[in-house]
Design brief:
two-stranded antiparallel ribbon, globular, 11 strands, 23% strand, 306 residues, single chain
């Protein structure tokens, strides 16, 4: 006799839908509880608007002591109320929780990355509740607050890395729309502008297509042709569009890659932004004569000497 495939009955289909519905309810409940717990923790720790961070980074930010360490060869001390997402060499970072107790930090502890926020043009930090209140007064379309990211230590790409992100005239055209660019002859705020050569295609959607805008790239070169500054600006058609400005601290004897993010309306102030942010970072330096008095006391195991 030929085999006839069994047809699920209405009761079976109903049971399957019931099980799927129950799992969906459980999943939504679990996500709600996770969000509620994270919000409680964030409120208890006065977490920053940058979002959540791994335990090792949170431990550095919410420590009762300030952040100290070696920033690309420069001993620094940064207020724990200013530095965010602090990562040292050997930290687990985003890979998971730390195994074992955290090490005692000294000025020899090599930093890998951290971030902080500043208000342009006075370069005020988020020290104090009044500054946090000030930041909340604005939105993405009018905020004077900028975000700074510092990459150093083993994550520093090395001296001369800015020339590796140069745009060569012979390499501007591409089959990919996001790499296919045209060099604009006229300078903009002293910068060489590289626009997209064609309009980005929309992303197909279920109800309607989603537009893409891509980025415009700006470069500043010195007289020798070396890239000193690179700025990527979103082309979205509103005042909240973001620019990301990148430069090397190597000329100051500090092995650090700096990046500052701000509203596109502030692009005309790129020179002043770069100068002022550089001075803020250099201001974290601690004089050598102050190191011994500020150094944490570490109890060494028996048999070891300093």
């Amino acid at each position: 006799m030929p085999l006839t495939p069994s047809i699920p009955q209405a009761a079976d289909l109903s049971t399957g839908r019931h099980h799927r519905g129950r799992w969906l309810v459980l999943l939504l409940a679990a996500l709600f509880l996770m969000g509620w717990a994270s919000r409680k923790v964030a409120r208890a720790q006065d977490a920053s608007a940058w979002g959540f961070q791994p335990p090792a980074m949170a431990a550095a930010q919410y420590s009762p002591t300030d952040v100290i360490g070696d920033l690309g060869g420069m001993p620094v001390k940064i207020s724990r109320h200013v530095a965010e997402y602090v990562e040292y060499e050997g930290d687990p970072g985003w890979s998971g929780p730390r195994k074992g107790p955290p090490p005692v930090r000294t000025y020899a502890s090599r930093l890998v990355s951290f971030g902080f926020e500043l208000r342009y043009p006075d370069m005020a930090t988020l020290l104090g509740n009044d500054m946090s209140d000030d930041r909340r007064r604005y939105n993405i379309y009018n905020t004077p607050w900028i975000r700074v990211g510092v990459t150093t230590g083993s994550h520093y790409p090395g001296r001369g890395f800015m020339n590796r992100i140069d745009l060569k005239d012979s390499e501007l055209r591409s089959e990919y729309w996001w790499k296919d660019r045209l060099k604009v002859r006229e300078k903009k705020f002293g910068l060489t502008e590289y626009r997209l050569a064609r309009k980005p295609p929309p992303i197909p959607g279920m109800d309607s297509d989603m537009p893409q805008y891509g980025e415009t790239i700006y470069l500043y070169r010195d007289k020798a042709g070396n890239v000193i500054t690179r700025i990527n600006c979103d082309n979205v058609p509103h005042e909240g569009a973001q620019c990301s400005q990148n430069w090397d601290m190597g000329e100051y004897g500090v092995s650090a890659d700096l990046r500052v993010m701000y509203r596109r309306a502030l692009l005309e102030h790129w020179r002043e932004l770069q100068q002022k942010v550089t001075q803020v970072v250099l201001g974290f330096r601690v004089e050598v004569k102050d190191l011994q008095a500020s150094q944490p006391v570490v109890d060494l195991p028996a048999g070891e000497s300093k």
